Amino acid sequence: MKKQFLSLLLLGLIAVACQKPGTNTTSQNDSGINTKVEALLSKMTLIEKIGQLNQYSSRWELTGPAPEGVDSMSLYNMVKEGKVGSMLNVTGANATRKIQAWAVDSSRLGIPLILAYDVIHGYETMFPIPLAEAASWEPELAKKSSRVAATEASAVGLHWTFAPMVDIARDARWGRFMEGSGEDPYLGAKMAYARVKGFQGDDLSDETTMAACAKHFAAYGFIESGRDYNTVQIGDPTLHNIVFPPFKACVDAGVATFMNAFNTVNETPATASSYLQRDILKGEWGFEGFVVSDWNSIGEMVPHGVAVDKKEAAYKAITAGSDMDMEGNAYINNLEELVNEGKVDEALIDDAVRRILTIKFKLGLFDDPYKYCNPEREKVLRCDEHLAAAKEAAKRSIVLLKNENDLLPLKKDGLKIAVIGELAGSKDVPLGSWRAKAITNSAVSLLEGIKNVGGSSSIRFAQGPAYTEGLRSFTTELNINTTDRSGMSEARLLASKSDVVVIALGEDCWQSGEGRSQTDISMKGFQQELLEEVYKVNKNVVVVLMNGRPIEINWMAENVPAIVECWHLGSEAGNGIAEVLFGDYNPAGKLPVSFPRAVGQQPLYYNHLHTGRATNGEGNVFWSHYTDQSKEPLYPFGYGLSYTTFDYSNLKLSTNELTEGGKIVVEATITNTGNVAGEEIVQLYIRDLVGSISRPVKELKGFEKIKLEPKESKVVSFEITTKDLEFYGASKEWKAEPGDFNLWVGPNSAEGMAASFTLKKMN
Ligand code: BGC
């Protein structure tokens, strides 16, 4: 009886999984591949099938806690026995060739491994961290960076990257903020789509492309109190309207794989969620690729308290649609028994195997398992062309936050420039976290960049007190120096004898990334003191911020004349920043995230709901605010300055009434009112005034980056259709609701020219 029920359940699950065929993946001959997959599947034993669902990391590079019971020897044997379908963290054309040979030459069916790595923002040539690159608001730029990253990673034998990370993040305490595109689902979706296209190209079998992976499905960015791996409680509308859009964009772009998440979503671990993986992803969205678990996220169902042991965890995960077990040992040790006991139907395993084999076929691994392992191709690593692309990306990701009295750009001659701060001299910090195979200390430091670009200026450096001490690495906790002030007076002296001070402050790159949550997001160590000491003797201070999350910079914003947000910009960081500081490039980035005034404001985001008491109309205390701090961000989402100024005028709507199937053309004139050419990111926001559920105060619905010569004007136009007004509301489906809307066209989420329109009732 139980078995019958399970079979029915299973048929239902598979039917859902197959409901809506392929919006994705590549241009391969799918029916040819299907035939080959079926032929291969029919030859496989149960344990060989389960082997395809099993993934291990190499033992020499671990990106999570090492699991028990698997050493290099047992791993070698398992690959040879066909009990491993994929490996991560094996790199290098020779190493990947060797490991591939174990599978291809020794296992009974010779099924090639799919080799994966976290290629998040570059492989050896480092691009800006994804959060930074989102500040360019240029999906094409992100596509190019991912293309370069794939070209390098595929040259060392890799087939699959665990990127893009498309989690919307709203809480700066979370260290993984740096890996995504910030707080907005619209911008996030555009960047996500572009990155998938960049990694995968048009044809997965091309030897310079690799399979992408949309992660972490879902809602990992909503972990409570910003503490990594923590619980997520989230309502359905937020899940659908805010969290899902970038994931859906990845499916639309044909992404080959998804990764689920460590966290629970409303008490159910994402890895055990049929709703996420079967109903939404494989059902509603018709995703045909496969889902890999996060590192032991199947095994972690045991500590989550939803499975007594890994066997039950394996049952829950496979039933819910997790196809591959990363580093969990849960599938390989338990699925066979679960099938033999009649608890898991083999058809469910077949479905997962099919998905995995299909991607392997699409990558061309069955035609030539070694085609990616060609030492000759490794010369593309960090080649000049890639470094040039990294420099372009670096400067386009910079956001000018403040520039009083036009302190910037700096003159290239005759200036005595003091460059101050450990981060300014660092050739490592700009490489960022999740840096794949970046060579330690291989970035152009800010100091080097200033020397390269600064012409005949006199450039002198003082480190100030050390920022960190001891080992700095991906796997260890960072030690910030809080005891040794030496270097302070030298820095102050240099500042006092200089015309201008460029001081780099913010975060070491190992302060952000996985496992790097913080309760305090202000500048750490002696940085604030160093800034104040320098400012006492020289008011011409330019702060170059390096950081992987929004940080608290109230004093700086109040006092120093110039602040340039430079994140962790990658291999060419110093050159890119210097081009901005000296005016060779006019900065045009805008914040993809709201900058808080205090950690207590977190989570802080522009597209919040209105609350019943949003203003203090009556002047009393009973309204939604803080009594000790403004509730507004220090710098809003979408904010960023330029060396020129832009005027917005002439907002025009083609009509104020939208009907089903119709559109509104919104036009605005933007004029460069300054003396230098510059780029501006023109942003369109709307507000749905009354809905079946409360709607955000603003939602980004369009943007365009334009370039204007001095005094030049351009008309920017956007189209709004009913589709743009759809949301997941009380009816539990995406639809637009008739009623009144406000609209803004402006330079950021807090300013803009306003208009309104009505969506007419549909018949
Ligand atoms: C991270 C993933 C990553 C995986 C493999 C996990 O700890 O959450 O994002 O892809 O490790 O390195």
From TrEMBL:
Pfam families: Fn3-like (PF14310), Glyco_hydro_3 (PF00933), Glyco_hydro_3_C (PF01915). Residues 1-19 form the signal peptide. Residues 680-749 form the Fibronectin type III-like domain. GO terms for biological process: carbohydrate metabolic process. The keyword Transmembrane does not apply. The lineage of its organism: Bacteria, Pseudomonadati, Bacteroidota, Bacteroidia, Marinilabiliales. PROSITE patterns: GLYCOSYL_HYDROL_F3 (PS00775), PROKAR_LIPOPROTEIN (PS51257). It comes from the Bacteria. Belongs to the glycosyl hydrolase 3 family. Keywords: Carbohydrate metabolism, Glycosidase, Hydrolase, Signal. One of its GO terms (molecular function) is beta-glucosidase activity. InterPro entries: Cellulose_deg_GH3, Fn3-like, GH, Glyco_hydro_3_AS, Glyco_hydro_3_C, Glyco_hydro_3_C_sf, Glyco_hydro_3_N, Glyco_hydro_3_N_sf. SMART domains: Fn3_like. This is Beta-glucosidase.
